[in-house]
Amino acid sequence: MAGIKPRLAVSSCLLGNPVRYDGTDKYNLFICEHLAKQFELIAVCPEADAGLGTPRPPVRLTGNPQEPLALGIEDSKLNITPILTSFAYEWLSQAKNISGIVLKSRSPSCGLSDTPVFDQHEQIQNLGSGLFTQILIKHYPQLPVIDEIGIKDPKQRNTFISRVKNLTPL
Question: Which structural domain range is residue 27 located in?
Answer without folding.
Answer: 7-166
